[in-house]
From TrEMBL:
This is Unannotated protein. The keyword Amino-acid biosynthesis applies. Transmembrane segments: none annotated. GO terms for molecular function: ATP binding; shikimate kinase activity. It holds the Pfam family SKI. The lineage of its organism: unclassified sequences, metagenomes, ecological metagenomes. InterPro entries: P-loop_NTPase (IPR027417), Shikimate/glucono_kinase (IPR031322), Shikimate_kinase/TSH1 (IPR000623). The keyword Transferase applies. HAMAP family: Shikimate_kinase. Keywords: Amino-acid biosynthesis, Aromatic amino acid biosynthesis, ATP-binding, Kinase, Nucleotide-binding, Transferase. CDD domains: SK. GO terms for cellular component: cytosol.
């Protein structure tokens, strides 16, 4: 087991925790959403508008395959990245430690801000977030090596939960 993969809904802190762990463990940090934007030279919201969600999910799967082949990294997945069965199978067959950053809507709302850069949250963002989370939560739980309820935790506290569990899992 080498890389740590962070999963969870928008606003759970995947990128923030990922960058923190990357510095603490002196490992490369990879954010699949950032990699997609770099690869396409477009914001994710533009991809959704111009090409549709299905085109975005195909790009996301390509990037997921690439990052899961890298060793000793900290990887932050977009909220929808592990939803397709193929993605779940790929994650489960990879030698990675998966951390589900679980968060409530009340705690996520101030972090997310429900802005236009989150195309699946347009319309009624709170209801959309809740609906997506209800559908995705069982998948996150199934994939997780470790689940952490992060509502009242700062990044250092979250890392302190991850380190010992990761150490045990890698022995």
């Amino acid at each position: 087991m080498n890389s740590i993969v962070l999963i969870g809904p928008p606003g759970s802190g995947k990128s923030t925790v990922g960058r923190f762990l990357s510095k603490r463990l002196d490992r490369k940090f990879l954010d699949t959403d950032e990699l997609i934007e770099k690869k396409t030279q477009k914001k994710i919201s533009e991809i959704f508008v111009d090409e549709g969600e299905e085109a975005f999910r195909k790009l996301e799967m390509i990037v997921l395959e690439e990052v899961l082949q890298m060793r000793n990294c900290i990887i932050s997945l977009g909220g929808g990245a592990p939803i397709k069965v193929e993605a779940q199978e790929l994650i489960q067959s990879s030698d990675v430690f998966v951390v589900f950053l679980d968060i409530s809507l009340a705690a996520a709302a101030p972090r997310v801000g429900f802005n236009r850069d989150r195309p699946l949250l347009l319309g009624n963002p709170r209801a959309q977030w809740q609906s997506l989370n209800e559908a995705r939560r069982p998948i996150y739980q199934k994939l997780a090596s470790l689940s952490i309820k992060v509502d009242d935790m700062n990044v250092d506290q979250i890392a302190q939960e991850i380190f010992p569990a990761y150490e045990v899992a890698t022995k």
